[in-house]
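::Amino acid chain::
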Amino acid sequence: MVKLLIWVFPIFLIISVPVAQAMLGATGIALWANGKPMAVMAQRLYSPTQSFPMLAIPFFILAGNLMMSGKFGEYLVNIAKLFVGRFKGGLAQVSIVGSVMFGGVSGSAVADASALGNALIPVQRREGYPAGFAAAVNASSSTVSVLIPPSIPLILYGLVSNTSIIDLFVAGIVPGVMLGIGMFSAVYFVSKKLNLPTAELPGGFRAYKSQLWHALPALAMPVFVIGTLRFGVATPTEVSVMAVAYALLVSGGIYRDLKLKDIWRAMIDTGVMTGAVMVIIMASNVIQWILTAERTPETLAMWVTSALSEPWMVIMAMNIIMLIVGTFLDLPAAVLLLGPLFVTIANAIGLDLVQLGLMMVVNLAIGLYTPPVGTTLFISAAIAQTSIGSVVRALFPFYAVGIVVLLLISYLPFLTIY
C-alpha cells in the first residue's frame, strides 16, 4: 500500500489537486487496490475529530481573530515604528518586529502575511521600496509567527508526536527571537545598500504613548498563555478557551471597538481556517494508519541508522528531506505526514522530540516562502503586485538567515531544551 501511496499522492499534487483531497484520493486508491474495506477510511477520518486537545486549535485561532478585528493592528504598527522606525529601511524593520508581536496573538504565518502585508507593503511602495524586497520581507518575517506561542504548527506536532505542548511553546521562543534578529540584521544591511528611508513617527514616544499602553494588554497574550501553561493552571485546551475570553475582554472592554458583526466575522474566519486544517488532519490520519500497519516508520528508522553511521548525518538528512517537502506541501500537512516518521528516527538516534519539533517547524516555515508552493510568498507577491521571480531574488538573504538558525537549533540542543 505504501508504495502505491508514494506514487499516487505526488501525481495528484502535480495536477493541482488540493492537498487534503490528494491525501484522500491517494489513500482511497491504495486501500481499494489492496482489497482493504473502505469502511476503514471512514473510521480513520472520524477518529481524530474526537480529540479534546485538538480543540485548542480553533480557540487559539478565534482569539487571534478577535484581537485583530479592531484597532490593535494599527497600534501594533505604530509601536513597531516607535522602536525600529529610526533604522534604515524602517518600514521593513516594522514588518519584522510586527511579526514577532503578531505571532504572540495569532500563531499563524498566513494570517500574519495577510494582515501586516496589507498594512505595510502599499506604504513601502509609496516610500520607494522595491516591490520585490517589500514582498520578500513580509513573506519571510511572517513565518516567525509559527514559533512564537501560541503556535498552531507546534500544537499539531505535539499531538502527532505525544510531546508536551507546553515544552514546545517555551522552546519556540528562542528560535523565534533568533529568526527575528537575523532578519532584522539582513534588512538593515540591504536597506543601507539600497539607501531606503527611515520611518520615524512624528512626536515620538510622547505622541504615541497612549497607543503603547493600549496595546500592552494584547501583547501580553503570549505571556498569559505561557505563564498559565508553565505553572499548571490549565491544559492547552483550557488555556485556548481562556485566551478567547481574554481577547473578548481586551477588545470589548479596553479597546471598545469590538462589535457584534466583528465577532460574527471572526467566528466565520475561524470556521474556515479550522475546516481547512481539520480536513488535512483527518486525511493524514488515514495515511498514518497505513504507514503504521506496514511498519514503515520502524523500517525507515532501521535503514537510515544503518546507512548513516553518525547521528549528525541523520539530522542533516532529516533537514534536507524536510526542506524539500516543505517546498511542495503546506506546513500543517507536512507536519502531520512527516511527524510520525521522524519521531521514530529521532528516538533511534537519541534526538530530543522537542528539538525535533522546532527543527521541523523552522524547516517547513522556510518552505512557506519558497517556490513552487509557498503560501506566504504568493500572498506577499499578490499584495505587492509583483512577480514571484522578483520576490525570490530578494529573498536570498532571508533564506541564509533561516538556514543558519535551522543549523543552530539542529546541533545546539540547549537552544530548544530547558
Observations:
- The two ends are 40 Å apart (CA to CA).
- The longest helix spans residues 260-293.
